[in-house]
Design a protein that fits this description.
single chain, mainly alpha, Growth Hormone, Chain: A, three-stranded mixed beta sheet, two-stranded parallel sheet, 21 helices, 3% strand, globular
């Protein structure tokens, strides 16, 4: 989804022209600027010093402080992720292994293997993969409901209520007297579906909501205590917001996963499902207490329908049965020009209640979605954490450690690495003039995912070589490989790095490049790429059993590497226009509602 500078220059010039016309029309407004080069007063940027063109190119850029409301919403996310991961971390054992002899709770004790349903590794991988798929499909519905009907805040509340019901159903499937019955699997599956629906409504809206608490959108200049003049860049601030959002996410998941794996091992699955549900109750309470203080974007009507009509108008006359010609037509620099209201001849369509600027907003949103095309192949690597790598750990010497506790290395590594990057590495790179742009970070993330799978494949080879059952290691539940389970550390740390570079940056990119009235929807499309990755994972089910597990990790590593190369090639031109795209988002009258921008005469 690359673009070139010539294309952007034309668009940028047009948007500046439109802005000048609007300022001219509003020159009598009490909020109009006294200078054509000075942004209008808006109560948010008043009194700030804005950089000149020369300063934009020469001054170092820094991030602003994160508002307290963002931290509170991050606290809600932490509690929700505690419940989500604290519950799902024990799904693999719950589904794969049978009840231990004489147990009614599934607890395996110090040296036993916890389990309940006894459906095997393929069934556990299939169901956990479906759960991930479902939880990342439903954000599309959540994004549509928020942008069109309820707004982000109310949609989050609806999602929390639905997820609470799902958690209760999952608890019921695990209590003694139910877990021993054949119907437990049906009850559990229903709970997964309901919980996944609530999670999807929540996830598509909490990410935009936390970033919206930071209101500044324009570059401004400050002088540090050292006397150095620097530019405070909203783009860097949003990066920081999402870094700490993800930090809170992983604090919640780390505590939840460690505690619940031990609850499962020594008490039973009913406790491992109940405790996260109790923590989950914190989410609506924190939101309710501060409900009058959050920045809350109202619904804007059927923006999706309007955007689809706009795309149809832009694509008119460009369709072709020849795929190469079709691609070139849709990539043409003037693709969106014929859809602008100013280009319409005669009577405009009744639905065209917006101006040229909103067309540029939609164009930017489409480009943001185009960047996500390669993500499903990356998610194949991340999806190994809570199923196949957990199963791999069960075939190694755990020395009394629950096999599913190793997955906590992922959030533990994130908690350590995120502050180091934010406080030390990223500022040092900016000071040294090294541009580690969003798209470059994503490419590095894909490569780290590749490395994690290479590590897992090599480790699986040595498990087969040292296990008493050879290439059928999963058959040796009571006689595992002598390899220490902590040998998996490399895979988890590399996946953590890949998350920081690929996933956090993806959240940031979805927010900063989407039109304001489509942020929940664009975020949902980004999350949907995870669902596609989960669907692709279902094709690997035949490889998820002995003796083919080495092939599973090897093929996933190859696909992630292909994604990294493909992503780099397809976005290298777009990467050059990163600053220009941020400037378009920053200063040129970003439309919050197409109905608010009536076309000029």
């Amino acid at each position: 989804m690359a673009t070139d500078r010539t294309e952007f220059a034309a668009v940028h010039e047009a948007s500046l022209h439109d802005e000048a016309e609007i300022k001219k029309d509003n020159s009598n407004s009490p909020l109009s600027s006294s200078s054509a080069d000075e942004p209008e007063l808006d109560g948010i940027h008043d009194g700030l010093e804005f950089p000149t063109d020369e300063e934009r190119l020469t001054l170092r850029r820094v991030a602003d402080s994160v508002p307290w409301n963002s931290y509170l919403i991050a606290l809600v996310e932490m509690a929700e992720r505690f419940s989500y991961y604290g519950t799902s971390v024990v799904f693999t054992n719950f589904i794969q292994w049978p009840l231990p002899d004489g147990s009614r709770t599934g607890a395996g004790g110090l040296n036993g293997q916890s389990g309940a349903l006894g459906k095997g590794q393929q069934a556990s991988t299939g169901l956990t993969t479906f759960y991930s798929f479902w939880a990342y499909v439903t954000p599309l519905l959540g994004g549509y409901i928020a942008d069109t009907h309820l707004g982000r805040f109310n949609t989050i509340y609806l999602g929390l209520a639905i997820a609470m019901l799902g958690h209760i159903i999952i608890i019921i499937s695990s209590v003694p007297g139910v877990v021993e019955k054949s119907g437990a699997i049906g009850c559990f599956a229903v709970g997964m579906v309901v919980t996944g629906l609530g999670t999807g409504l929540f996830k598509s809206n909490v990410s935009p909501l936390i970033a919206e608490q930071y209101k500044r959108t324009k570059l401004f200049v400050v002088t540090l205590d050292t006397g150095e003049r620097v530019i405070v860049d909203p783009a860097h601030t949003i990066t920081r917001v999402y870094m700490y959002f993800y930090l809170f996410t992983n604090i919640g998941s780390l505590i939840g996963q460690i505690a619940m794996t031990y609850a499962e091992k020594f008490v039973g699955f009913w406790l491992a499902f109940t405790l996260p549900t109790c923590v989950f109750l914190m989410c609506p309470l924190v939101l309710f207490v501060r409900r009058k203080h959050y920045v809350r974007s109202p619904p804007t009507g059927s923006v999706l329908a309007t955007a689809l009509r706009l795309f149809g108008l832009a694509a008119k006359g460009r369709w072709s049965l020849n795929p190469i010609r079709l691609y070139k037509n849709f990539k043409a620099p003037d693709f969106w020009e014929q859809a602008k209201p100013s280009k319409q001849v005669g009577q405009k369509p009744a639905w065209m209640t917006f101006d040229d600027i909103w067309v540029e907003e939609v164009r930017r949103g489409v480009k943001a979605c185009g960047v996500f095309v390669w993500y499903p192949l990356y998610w194949l690597t991340y999806g190994q954490i809570n199923n196949n790598l957990t199963s791999q750990a069960a075939t190694m010497s755990t020395h009394g450690v629950p096999n599913d506790v190793l997955s906590n290395l992922n959030p533990f590594a994130l908690i350590i690495i995120i502050p180091i990057l934010d406080l030390l590495v990223y500022p040092a790179m900016r000071k040294a003039g090294i541009k580690f742009s969003a798209l470059r970070r994503i490419t590095c993330g894909f490569l780290c995912g590749t490395s994690a799978m290479i590590w897992a494949a090599v480790l699986q080879y040595y498990i087969y070589q040292t296990n008493p059952c050879g290439y059928f290691a999963n058959s040796c539940k009571d006689n595992p490989s002598p390899l220490n389970v902590w040998s998996q550390t490399g895979s988890y740390v590399l996946i953590s790095l890949s998350e920081i570079f690929a996933n956090i940056t993806g959240l940031e990119y979805a927010f900063t490049k989407a039109p304001k009235n489509m942020r929940s929807l664009v975020m949902a499309i980004y999350l949907f790429t995870n669902a596609i990755g989960s669907a692709l994972s279902e094709a690997f089910i035949p490889l998820v059993e002995d003796p083919r597990l080495i092939w599973n990790y090897t093929v996933v590593a190859c696909l992630s590497f292909v994604a990294a190369i493909g992503f780099f090639i397809s976005t290298r031109k777009l990467d050059k226009a990163e600053d220009e795209l941020n400037n378009l988002a920053e200063g040129h009258l970003a439309a919050e509602d197409p109905q608010k921008h009536s076309e000029k005469a």
